[in-house]
Design brief:
This protein is an alpha/beta fold and 366 residues long. The chain has a single domain, classed as Alpha/Beta hydrolase fold, catalytic domain (Rossmann fold, 3-Layer(aba) Sandwich). The protein contains 14 helices and nine strands. A seven-stranded mixed β-sheet has the order 3-5-4-6-7-8-9, with helices on both faces. The protein has a two-stranded antiparallel sheet with strand order 1-2. Helix 1 runs parallel beside helix 7, helix 6 crosses helix 7 and helix 10 packs antiparallel against helix 11.
């Protein structure tokens, strides 16, 4: 019990001081390993202390050598070169602190419909801009391997920002993406980014992993203190720069947002009350209560109309008329299509893929 109390205090400390490892000096260039080549990426500035903490955490987590180095990049499902020429290659892009396997249900639906598929694996440790650069490199590689093949990007959550970073930057645009379908994109950020570390920690509690509470904290450091987390915050410098760019005129955009939030304003008020009661009973929590209450005051994405993580207001994107509202929440949307809102999502995506194929055939007709 004492160990878990200490874990909760660690979580509270990170909530209270999200910038305790604030930028102080530029980090050296890093090389991320892909399935095909190394990618030079210069992350946003962060302190030597922050880098040292992350390095120590990752080293500890990998000490038993049971966590092999992740291969980043686009992995295709089988030999997609033999797919019909009129079928676009659909590349799925996962969200923050996620992985391609989480989108397996949607991938299966697309494959069953006859579309060649693949998925991008990227690291939440990197700034979103670095992941966009990785995606750009991989899209160019696919362009060389399958010239003439159009590519559709289907993204979840932060994956939409990664995709936009690649196709809306003239220097990164590969030119072979014809359609971008974004599921629950935090186009203007999400206040839930302030709580991404605690969410990551609690997400690991059921699985345990044999390392105990300390492992949970270090796992959160490995991913939850990433530059991507800072980029996801409302009005972050990255989002401001991204949203100043125009939409790519050669790409058809679709935004699909959820309205199935599982939270209510009453629950947020209850959370405030719990924080206050805990602060009265613990001097440490009393010291950080103002910071905790400040975070809760911006937690509007969870209680306003939206999916529980991305509000409708922050999900909409200027210049995208094709915006669809469905009753899913941020968590069940990438699962099996067992509920009607998720099944409807799959139908909407298939419908747009079919219409894109018709548009591309009409464009290529003499």
């Amino acid at each position: 019990m004492l160990a878990y109390r200490n874990l909760l205090l660690s979580i509270a400390a990170f909530i209270a001081a999200p910038h305790w490892l604030a930028a102080a000096e530029p980090a050296p260039e890093v090389v991320v390993s892909t399935g095909n080549a190394a990618v030079q990426a210069k992350p946003a500035s962060f302190s030597g202390t922050r880098a040292a903490v992350r390095t120590a955490a990752v080293s500890w987590l990998h000490r038993a050598q049971d966590r092999p180095t992740t291969q980043l990049g686009i992995a295709l499902d089988g030999d997609t070169k033999d797919a019909p020429a009129d079928r676009p290659l659909v590349v799925l892009i996962h969200g923050f602190n996620s992985r391609p396997e989480r989108m397996a249900a949607l991938r299966q639906t697309l494959s069953d419909a006859g579309y060649p598929t693949g998925a991008l694996r990227y690291s939440s440790q990197e700034p979103i801009g670095a992941s966009a650069a990785l995606l750009s490199q991989e899209l160019r590689r696919l362009g060389r391997e399958q010239p003439g093949r159009s590519i559709v990007l289907v993204t979840h959550s932060m994956g939409g920002l990664v995709a936009r970073g690649a196709i809306e930057n003239v220097s990164l645009d590969s030119g072979n993406v014809t359609q971008l379908i974004m599921i629950a994109p935090p186009s203007h950020g999400t206040s839930c980014a302030y709580l991404s570390l605690p969410a990551e920690l609690f997400g690991h509690v059921p699985s345990g992993g044999g390392h105990g509470p300390l492992n949970l904290v270090l796992t959160g450091i490995e991913n939850g203190l990433s530059e991507a987390r800072d980029d996801l915050k409302p009005d972050s410098a990255y989002l401001q720069a991204l949203n100043r760019r125009p939409r790519n005129p050669n790409v058809r955009y679709t935004v699909i947002l959820g309205t199935g939030t599982v939270f209510s304003p009453e629950e947020l008020a209850h959370a405030r009350q719990i924080v206050h009661q805990c602060a009265q009973a613990d001097s440490f929590l009393a010291a950080i209560e103002p910071a905790c209450q400040s975070v809760l005051s911006d937690f509007e994405d969870a209680v306003q109309g939206g999916d529980g993580v991305v509000s409708l207001a922050r999900g909409r994107l200027d210049g995208v008329a094709d915006t669809v509202l469905l009753g899913f929440n941020h968590w069940n949307v990438i699962g099996p299509p067992q509920s009607e809102p998720v099944a409807a999502l799959h139908r909407e995506i298939l419908s747009r893929l079919a219409s894109d194929a018709i548009a591309q055939n009409a464009k290529s007709a003499p």
